[in-house]
Write a structure and sequence with these properties.
This protein is of the alpha/beta class. The chain has helices at about 40-45, 70-105, 110-115, 115-135, 140-150, 155-165, 165-195, 215-220, 225-240, 245-250, 250-260, 260-270, 305-315, 335-355, 425-435, 485-495, 520-535, 560-565, 575-585, 600-610; strands at about 45-50, 55, 280, 290-295, 320, 325-330, 360-365, 370-375, 390, 400-410, 415-420, 455-460, 475-480, 505-510, 540-545, 570, 590-595, 615-625. It is elongated. Mean pLDDT is about 80; it is low at about 1-65, about 440-445 and about 445-450. This is NADPH oxidase 4.
């Protein structure tokens, strides 16, 4: 296997001259091309083989310190960690404040004497649950987040980068709900035991048990808070277990259906707080905690702890003006979740109305490696490059919506938009069979067969990190396999019009296991190459195609793909050298790094963006969520 590393800027002989008097490593021309060298330049620069080019080691070039860089780390991680600190801080403060209120509050004196620490922990965890049950809905308001992302006058780049972490925040809130639910349930199990063991004859209004020693399981299974609590725990368990990565990949339907149980979860949550089991004292001034009620017979059958408190009360000079009065708490959970829940419901209604009109399928194309391209038309549909849609096909499943990144957006020249779908799971297999029941490779079904297509509904578009590609002067787009789809839409847009964007240079890196995968967008890359060549912008696009499979000699042999054949490399990218090269060629700039592909590539790029240390170049990492 040959280890290949090659710079693939779109330079051509008529547009770029090679000055032999200049050093070989100069700016962006750190590497050289196979199709532009002759004579001494070829001998000096490359060593040819039947597969492509083997470049000599560039490690002798000046390297950049790749240790942990505080500046780079703050740029990439500072914002989300600040939000994390604020979120954790608010949760801790809310827990501690509620804990101390129920521990030391005069209105909870008698209830605390009965239940002890379990009361404080159960109420403190409930307050954190209220907070997170309200926050967990906000990241799922996709249309609102998309509108905020599009308002560049309102939201800065840092704010938009934080909005891209909405899914991570949703997951964090979900984990917090599960953790504090365990704490809440455990504390209430202790409370159920204490309600039975510490049955109060002196203050019967506080009792939940009907008599001393009643089975705590009866209290749980015969009360509204107990029954609804069991149902809430069951729903949370199903949602949490079905959210694992393995289930989402192997059986997305299970994840989808169990996650929609959140509607039932919030309905039961509203019922859960209506039980009125925990009561507070309403007449603290007239009946100070621990006071002696005049002309009252001392209670009998007291426990040792109650006798101790009674003896302590006798030594107190305070005399009660009246008996203690207790009242159930006014439900507070709905105060927390009502606004986010109404906001989410309003958005869902808006999305339902917007997505209720079926789209028109213009054409369907089957590509190599089990990929189909669907070209559609919808009136008033105006997405931005890099956005994604939710596709629904009732013929496959009426309730399932699957996210697909747009690979082509409507432009001034055409009104259609397209997506590429990798056939992997059950849903995509059924969907592809409905669209192309017996189609051959590269067969396009024209509009005259439109009546044979199933009805399709599109919800969206929704914002994604890939939209930020145009907001940098220099962007690096790294794709792995089908992860190229967000960047295909970017390339389509550049093919139509790039002048109105801030972007001045684009590095496009595409890593695939099979050669046939490059045919998905080979024509697009060649068309953009020719456009930039004619417009005398050879340095705008830098293409690198990496083929990781080395089982047999492979190349793009077709004549129309000749511009790409010299840009096809065998082996895996050398990311560190690539970052060093880009950093040298783009000094005093912020470089946007965008990744959509396997986790191994994403982790490596994320690490390099955080560790790249340079006083002039900063790499900002943006990851496309592709799960």
């Amino acid at each position: 296997m040959l280890s290949l590393s090659l710079s693939l800027s779109l330079s051509t002989p008529p547009l770029q001259r090679w000055d032999e008097s200049k050093p070989e490593h100069d700016g962006e021309n750190t590497h050289t091309h196979t199709h532009t060298h002759t004579g001494r330049n070829r001998a000096r620069a490359v060593k040819c083989s039947r597969f492509g080019v083997k470049h000599r080691d560039t490690g002798s070039a000046r390297t950049v310190d790749m240790g942990l860089s505080l500046k780079s780390w703050v740029t990439n991680e500072g914002g989300k960690h600040c939000v994390l600190v604020v979120w954790v801080g608010v949760s801790v403060w809310l827990f501690w404040r509620t804990f101390m209120l129920y521990c030391n509050g005069a209105q909870y004196y008698y209830l605390h004497n009965m239940l002890g620490l379990g009361l404080c922990v159960s109420r403190a965890s409930a307050s954190v649950l209220n907070l997170n049950c309200s926050l967990v809905l906000l990241p799922m308001c996709r249309s609102i987040l998309t509108i905020l992302r599009g308002q560049t006058q309102v939201s800065s780049r840092k704010v938009r980068r934080l909005l891209d972490k909405s899914k991570t925040f949703h997951v964090a809130c979900g984990v917090a709900i599960c953790v504090f639910s365990v704490i809440h349930v455990s504390a209430h199990l202790v409370n159920a035991v204490n309600f039975s063991v510490r049955f109060s004859d002196e203050f019967p209004d506080l009792n939940v048990a009907h008599y001393r020693g009643q089975d705590p399981r009866v209290l749980i299974l015969t009360t509204v808070p107990g029954i609804t609590g069991v149902l809430l725990v069951l729903i949370l368990f199903l949602m949490f277990t079905a959210s694992s990565h393995s289930i989402r990949v192997c059986s997305y339907e299970i994840f989808w259906y169990t996650h929609n149980l959140f509607i039932l979860f919030y309905i039961i949550l509203m019922l859960h707080v209506l039980g009125g089991m925990l009561k507070y004292q309403t007449n603290v001034e007239a009946h100070p905690p621990g006071c002696i009620l005049a002309n009252r017979m001392p209670p009998t059958n007291l426990t040792a702890e109650e006798e101790k408190r009674a003896e302590s009360a006798k030594s107190s000079p305070t005399v009660c003006g009246e008996e203690a009065k207790f009242q159930a708490h006014f439900p507070q959970s709905w105060l927390w979740v009502s606004a986010p829940l109404c906001l989410y419901c309003a958005e869902r209604v808006y999305r339902y109305v917007r997505g209720s009109i079926p789209v028109t399928v213009v054409s369907v194309t089957r590509h190599p490696c089990d990929v189909i391209e669907v070209c559609m038309l919808k009136s008033g549909f105006k997405p931005r490059p890099g956005q994604y849609i939710l596709l629904n096909c009732p013929s496959v499943s009426s309730f399932e919506n699957h996210a697909f990144t747009l690979t082509a957006c409507p432009t001034q020249n055409k009104d259609t938009f397209g997506i590429h779908i990798r056939v992997l799971g059950d849903w995509t297999k059924c969907f592809s069979q409905l669209l192309l029941p017996e189609a051959e490779y590269s067969e396009v079904l024209p509009m005259m067969r439109q009546q044979r297509y199933p009805k399709l509904y599109v919800d969206g578009p929704f914002g994604s990190p890939s939209e930020e590609v145009f907001h940098y002067e220099v962007s690096v787009c790294v794709a792995g396999g089908i992860g190229v789809t967000p960047f295909a839409c970017i390339l389509h847009t550049l093919l139509d019009d790039w002048c109105r964007y801030k972007l001045q240079r684009l590095y496009f890196v595409w890593v695939c296991r099979e050669l046939e995968c490059f045919y998905w967008f080979a024509e697009l890359l060649c068309s953009l190459y020719c456009k930039l060549w004619k417009e005398n912008r050879p340095d705008f696009l830098n293409i690198r195609l990496y083929l990781t499979s080395t089982h047999r000699p492979q190349n793009l042999t077709e004549e129309k793909y000749r511009p790409l054949s010299s840009r096809l490399l065998i082996g895996r990218p050398r990311w560190k050298l690539l970052f060093q090269e880009i950093g040298k060629a783009n000094k005093h700039k912020k470089v946007g790094v965008f990744c959509c592909g396997p986790k191994s590539i994403s982790r490596e790029l994320h690490k390099l963006c955080n560790s790249f240390s340079s006083s002039t170049t900063v790499f900002e990492y943006n990851k496309e969520s592709f799960s």
